[in-house]
Specification:
Two copies of one chain form a homodimer. Helices cover 29% and strands 25% of the residues of chain A. Chain A is α/β, with parallel strands linked by helices. The first copy, chain A, folds into two domains: 34 residues, no CATH class; 340 residues, Nitrilase/N-carbamoyl-D-aminoacid amidohydrolase (4-Layer Sandwich).
């Protein structure tokens, strides 16, 4: 049976389950009995039709307050396949992806998106499965002055849009070190800063520790005109303590640009970023790429199988989760797409007031417990039968 | 539309979705294309039929290793409604629940269960919604020498079964303090120790901070003959750092005895304990009560609605989640039930070796970050546009 019978989980559920039961299924699985579908302008819909990408938009309503006005923000998530062959010249590969994604950002602008985020390492194939350094390291560029950042600064300014761009970074100030980095560009086109991936996988085809180390930029929260945002890159979503520190620094939306494949992580995908939204009373935006990438040379996957050249399929399924547990449907599992969600950031404080998770988190207890557990002579708290 | 059209989410999905698509849905939502249903002995099935409770049993297979033998253990989770009216004498109410649950434990024994766990505060109605101290505090008993522990010690010994019993505890050594406590009894009938609920809710009808304080027993792991187990009581499941400390202390199975109602938490239920299993490379067992409980006096719920006497429905749906993301179907949303899962504890280390979550968790970073975030003059790491 093909892994890809299903275009999307949500469409499958909706098409087969009778309406009265579907509402209950939807409530239990998605936190809401029905999606709040937003109308999109023709310009955005036409671009999606002309350039063959999916576009979906949902609202996640919050309670109305007496004193604070709603703090509505539209976030966009872009998932896409690469464009050219991985054996094409590096700059051509990158430009072809730029070209594709620029169109999707244009559609996002037509739909009044305020903050947009692309997938992890969006300018390149996810070539780390090969363990080859050449030519892949040539994709790395300076976070602040590199060509991708420059290109996006123009768009950010033109569209009045905050852009989160996850790239392979080359840090020439520190010995040409390579990092997995997200750059945040303000809606005025200014470079705000960067975050380097905190947790690096060594699993399956994700041989990333061969290329870059654990990030040294802490857990920055970027105070943009549209809200306080942070970026938890890919494998960091498996680490609840990583999500938590972004929350402690005040994040209202945490983006999770990722690249992950079905056999490895698909059953975990709907769980982790959503759990983070709930546990930390903020919104999360989980973004994965789509498609299968073929590499010039054969490589092995450390799983006892024969050498091969294909990596994937990446299963897309990008989605947005809210602090109250509501989540949007996912984008397609195999098509390029733009997911738009209109959030009211007031919900973050509302959920904190309701559920009290920060108030009850007992942070000093865990600071001290983690400190003890970090010691070489740590003695776990074990109780044995007397 | 009634909240209770659905007997179980899983049965609904299975009955409506065509088989080829169902397998993909099941894989994405439950981590496995099909459940491994275990055969049960007639004695267990007959008890379930005679006493009107659901009984389900699943295996969660692990990889075969060369050096270690499989470490198979059968865990049981009991969900149940109360028996007598909440206005009946306290000791009669308790005895009636004992009587019901003893039968279910007997069925578990017939099915070779090694470790069993009842729901939170299993000997009583979940009366904390009322904010009344009398008569509910009379349910509290000594963890080590109280009547419930004594009663269960006999069963544990007779059935060679570890029993986790969550009760309202009265600590006469410390000023008659009341606690929400889980008692662990060994399969030899010995009192091993106790754990007091670490995080106490102040939300909706869960006015528990009126009755007891945050636990002072840390994150103990009980090294039983069948594996290293811990208990994360109810609201503690919303706190990833709480789950994490049980993992750092070496837990292989963490039970989450709970009491929670549909409108409040049902969309979160399938997420949190399962995320904990994934993030910490251990098994989790999430247990919720069923039924609606009527109290003698009206009470209000702090939600602007009229005073009322009913609390519920509690939605059951108890389930087991594995470190690799696989989960069992849930028990019914409204019937008493016994869920049995046969686990191979070797999976915990296998998943750690595969995913490397402990190796990549950067504990010292978070010990220090949490320490800073605990300070009164904490300055969050905020980056503003220059």
């Amino acid at each position: 049976m093909s892994d890809f019978n299903l275009h999307s989980l949500e469409e499958c559920l909706e098409s087969h389950i009778p309406l009265n039961e579907y509402k209950e299924v939807k409530r239990i699985l998605y936190g809401t009995t029905e999606d709040h579908v937003l109308n999109l302008p023709t310009a955005a819909i036409s671009l999606a039709a002309d350039y063959n990408f999916e576009i979906k938009a949902y609202g996640i309503p919050a309670r109305k307050e007496e004193i604070r006005k709603p703090r509505k923000v539209r976030v966009g998530a872009i998932q896409n396949s690469i464009v050219l062959s991985t054996s094409a010249p590096i700059d051509k590969q990158r430009e072809a992806i730029w070209e594709k994604v620029r169109i999707i950002i244009k559609a996002a602008s037509a739909a009044d998106v305020n903050i947009i985020c692309m997938q992890e390492a969006w300018t390149m194939p996810f070539a780390f499965c090969t363990r080859e350094k050449f030519p892949w390291c040539e994709f790395a560029e300076d976070a602040e002055t590199g060509p991708t950042t420059k290109m996006l600064q123009e768009l950010a300014k033109a569209y009045n849009m905050v852009i989160i761009s996850s790239i392979l970074e080359r840090d020439t100030t520190h010995g040409d070190t390579i990092w997995n980095t997200s750059v945040v560009i303000s809606n005025h086109g200014r470079y705000m800063g960067k975050h380097r991936k905190n947790h690096i996988p060594r699993v399956g085809d994700f041989n990333e520790s061969t290329y870059y180390m654990e990030g040294n930029t802490g857990h920055p929260v970027f105070e943009t005109e549209f809200g306080k945002i942070a970026v938890n890159i890919c494998y960091g979503r498996h680490h609840p303590q990583n999500w938590m520190m972004f929350g402690l620094n005040g994040a209202e939306i945490v983006f999770n640009p990722s690249a992950t494949v079905g056999a490895l992580s698909e059953p975990l995908w709907g769980i982790e970023a959503r759990n983070a939204a709930i546990a930390n009373s903020y919104f999360t935006v989980a973004i994965n790429r789509v498609g299968t990438e073929e590499f010039p040379n054969e490589y092995t996957s450390g799983d006892g199988q024969k050498a091969h050249r294909a990596f994937g399929p990446f299963y897309g399924s990008s989605y947005v989760a809210a602090p109250n547990g509501v989540r949007t449907p996912g984008l397609s599992r195999h098509r390029d797409g733009l997911l738009i969600a209109e959030l009211d950031l007031n919900m973050c404080r509302q959920v904190k007031d309701f559920w009290n998770f920060p108030m009850t988190q007992r942070l000093p207890l865990y600071a001290e417990s983690f400190q003890r557990a970090s010691q070489l002579d740590f003695k776990p708290q074990i109780i044995r039968e007397q």
